[in-house]
Amino acid sequence: MKEQLIKHLPPDYPGTKHIHWFDTIDSTNTCAKALAQDGAPQGTVVIADRQTGGRGRMGRSFSSPGGMGIYLSMILRPGCDATELMHLTCAVAVAMCDAIEAVSGFRPGLKWINDLIAKGKKLGGILTELSLVPGTASVDFAVVGIGINCCQTVADFPEELQNIAISLQDVIGNPVDRAKLAAAMIESLWKMSRTLLVEKSTVMTKYKADCITLGQDIYLLQDDEKRPCRAIDLNLDGALIVAYPDGTSQAVNSGEVSVRHQ
Ligand code: BTN
């Protein structure tokens, strides 16, 4: 797959020496963070055929069997304060929808904030990690990691995921060329990295259009609390604006949501 991926890379990508390919790795995000700490430049990509310790948000694991998904992380060096990057996960999510649509014709939905959704199930997820320059609010680097389920059949998922996860191949009913999709993801991320700070409102307009959480009655899960509310909007930082039954509202930028079934 590595040679195929290199063949499909966009001409403006800085060079194949910045692509680090592994057959097996614990986590591409962990590896990318170590490379970034050693000075690897913006655009450096870590990609693996299989992860033994794929990580998700909230300390969860991400199932990463060999030959079936794309597990990819990119290093970004945006040169700004963390407060200017609140929308980063949303920008990555939109870039991933663009890449998947370009390769497969199918555009996933987005469950706030980091889940790619198809047919009500999880197609993939995004894990964004920031490292600050010590003693400052300035971002030294960000690592954005994306996992996409590409070729699994239902039986390939662990039992506990079989009702909640889906692969792109299952969605479109055709085989997925992982090398082509990985190259499209790199192209889309690379493009996003160069407009990240100037196209906030364009990105958030696109995120809103793809976001399936908006307009839903949800539970907001934060710390050990679960509060019923309605998802009514998103702000330019990617925070979810929720309305509570008592008429108050709040912009939420942490935690996660689950849909309330009536
Ligand atoms: C989530 O679902 O909460 C996010 C999942 C992110 C998984 C990807 S796979 C590539 C990268 N490496 C990791 O360890 N995690 C991300």
Radius of gyration: 18 Å
Looking at the structure, what is the overall shape? globular
Along the chain, the helix and strand elements come as HEHEEHEEEEHHHEEEEE
Unreliable sequence segments: none
Portion in helices: 25-40%
Mean pLDDT: 96
| Helix count, DSSP H or I runs of 4 or more residues | 6
Ligand inventory reads: biotin
> β content, as a range?
25-35%
How is the main sheet built?
7 strands, mixed
Distance between the ends: 46 Å
The strand count comes to 12
Kindly report the spatial arrangement of strands forming the biggest sheet.
1-2-3-7-6-5-4
- What oligomeric state best describes the polypeptide chains here? single chain
Which structural category do the helix and sheet elements fall into?
alpha+beta
Structure, described:
The chain is α+β, with helices and mostly antiparallel strands and 262 residues long. It contains six helices and twelve strands. The chain has helices at 2-8, 28-37, 88-104, 168-172, 178-195, 200-210; strands at residues 19-25, 45-51, 69-76, 109-111, 115-118, 121-132, 139-149, 217-222, 225-234, 240-243, 249-252, 256-259. The strands form two sheets. Strands 1-2-3-7-6-5-4 form a seven-stranded mixed β-sheet, with helices on both faces. A hairpin with a 5-residue loop joins strand 10 and strand 11 (249-252). Helix 3 (88-104) packs antiparallel against helix 5 and helix 3 (88-104) crosses helix 6 (200-210). The termini are far apart. Bound molecules: biotin. The site of biotin has 20 residues, from helix 2, strand 3, strand 6 and strand 7. Biotin is lined by residues 27-29, 51, 54-57, 60, 62, 71-73, 114, 125-127, 145-147.
